[in-house]
Structure formats: structure tokens, C-alpha cells
Design a protein that fits this description.
Helix content: 25-40%
Strand content: 15-25%
Number of helices: 7
Order of helices and strands: EEEHEEEEEHEEHHEHHH
Shape: globular
Number of domains: 1
Strand order of the largest sheet: 1-2-4-7-8-3-9-11-10
């Protein structure tokens, strides 16, 4: 089955029917928090590859795993949990059609929740033993749930990049979008932040996923992901990512 919008397509190669799935997004962002977290969840839960996303807007890249070429953006599933995960940096011009594709596909699948997992760059991250995770959502009941679960609500500010576009499109399409954003190193892969996001995510989507190995392998993960982080940082600069550190004019 193929689902296409604006020259970008999702190819389902083995997607099982699921009732109101929870869809996780791990896209390149601050600290690669979403990519690290979703990759860890895929491995820990034994999710199966069931699809991929392709477009001429993506760079001419293929990923090899065990000698087999793979599309850089792939979809995994186990039961009612679906994960979308990328292993390459995304060009700014690809983000708008990709975000629309993800949200409309989530709506077509009857998703109960679309979760955007990312980071918030903080200059004092090295001093934080346990980075905070902030929540935001496109619906008032979900924002109340975030607060009731003891997660700080991201009250004011800007969000720039793929998750901003997903959030806007989710409002248009009436798809419930939850954002979980952890305090993170601005320019370094941050497995510690990813671990804390997973712990908070489990409050919304219960799963048997431990995070001990993330913290134990922090240095190895940082080394393996450093080139992806470099390319992601370059693309974030083109998007005007620094605007996230400003306060909206309405509240000055």
C-alpha cells in the first residue's frame, strides 16, 4: 500500500492492521533526542520494519544494515505501537511535505496519539544530572493530562523545525499531537535526555523499555551519531532554530 502527498510517499511493506495506534516520531532535532529515543524503543521492544518513506526531496542516501541497503526513513511496528525513525539529516525544503504526509497518514490510520520526541537546548546541560522533560499538546484535555502526570507544561515560547510543522498540521487535521521535549545539549547527541523522555513517554504509552543501557552507552552513542548531529545542526541553522530562545512578542 502507498500513501502519497506532494511528491512524498509512505510505502507500507508489511503494516499490520491496528486499532487507534500510537505513532512515535524520531526526527533530527536538538541533541538527536527523538532519534536516539525511538531507535532505542525499536530495539528494546523488538519492533518489525513495516514500511519506509521516500521522495526526490531527500538526499541521495542509502543505509546499509548487515549488508542490506535500507531507506533512511523507515517505519516499525509492534502491536498498537508504530515508530517512524530516520537515520539521515533532512533538508529544510523536505520538512513541510514530510510533516503533512506524517500527519495525514496518522489520521488515515486512525491514530489515537501522534508523539513528537525532541530536545530543548540548554546552555547548562552539563550541570544537569537529570534533564527535565517538558510537554505540550494540541488539545486541552491532553495538556491537562500532562500537568496531572507531573510533567512541566511548555507554557510560552517558539518551536522551530519538523515538530513545529507537525504540530501545526495536526491542528488543521484534528490529530492529537503530544510533544515531549527534554533539556538537551544544543549541539551534541544526548542519550541522557533521550532516556528521560522515554520514562515520561511510558506514562502515555506503556511499554516494556528500560533505559539503563542508554546511559551506560552514552559515549559510544555520541561518537556514532556525531556526524548526523553536525549535519542536523547545519540544517537547523538554516531553519532559524535560534528563534526558539526568544519570547513571543505578546508576552514581552
Amino acid at each position: 500500500m502507498t500513501f502519497s502527498i506532494d511528491g512524498m510517499s509512505i510505502y507500507e511493506t508489511g503494516l499490520m492492521e491496528s486499532q487507534n495506534p500510537v505513532i512515535l516520531c524520531g526526527l533530527p532535532d536538538i541533541g538527536l533526542v527523538g532519534i536516539i529515543a525511538v531507535s532505542h524503543i525499536i530495539k528494546e521492544t523488538g519492533m518489525e520494519e513495516v514500511g519506509y518513506i521516500d521522495s526526490d526531496l531527500f538526499p541521495p542516501v542509502v543505509v546499509f544494515h548487515h549488508g542490506e541497503p535500507k531507506y533512511p526513513i523507515r517505519i516499525f511496528q509492534k502491536g498498537n505501537l508504530i515508530a517512524l525513525f530516520t537515520e539521515t539529516a533532512l533538508s529544510p525544503e523536505s520538512l513541510s511535505p514530510l510533516s503533512k504526509l506524517i500527519v495525514k497518514w496518522a489520521k488515515d490510520k486512525g491514530a489515537s496519539l501522534l508523539v513528537s520526541i525532541g530536545g530543548i537546548g540548554v546552555p547548562n546541560r552539563i550541570d544537569l544530572e537529570s534533564p527535565k522533560v517538558y510537554g505540550a499538546a494540541t488539545s486541552l484535555p491532553m495538556r491537562e493530562s500532562i500537568k496531572n502526570l507531573g510533567i512541566p507544561l511548555m507554557e510560552e515560547g517558539f518551536l522551530v523545525g519538523p515538530y513545529a510543522l507537525i504540530s501545526k498540521e495536526s491542528k488543521v487535521e484534528s490529530v492529537l499531537n503530544l510533544l515531549l521535549l527534554a533539556e538537551s545539549f544544543p549541539q551534541y547527541p544526548d542519550p541522557g535526555a533521550a532516556a528521560n523522555v522515554i520514562l515520561e513517554l511510558k506514562k502515555f504509552a506503556p511499554m516494556d523499555v528500560g533505559v539503563k543501557s542508554l546511559t551506560e552507552r552514552s559515549e559510544e552513542i555520541r561518537m556514532n551519531a556525531r556526524e548526523l548531529m553536525r549535519k542536523t545542526t547545519e540544517n537547523m541553522q538554516k531553519m532559524g532554530k535560534s528563534q526558539e530562545y526568544e519570547l513571543p512578542m505578546m508576552y514581552l
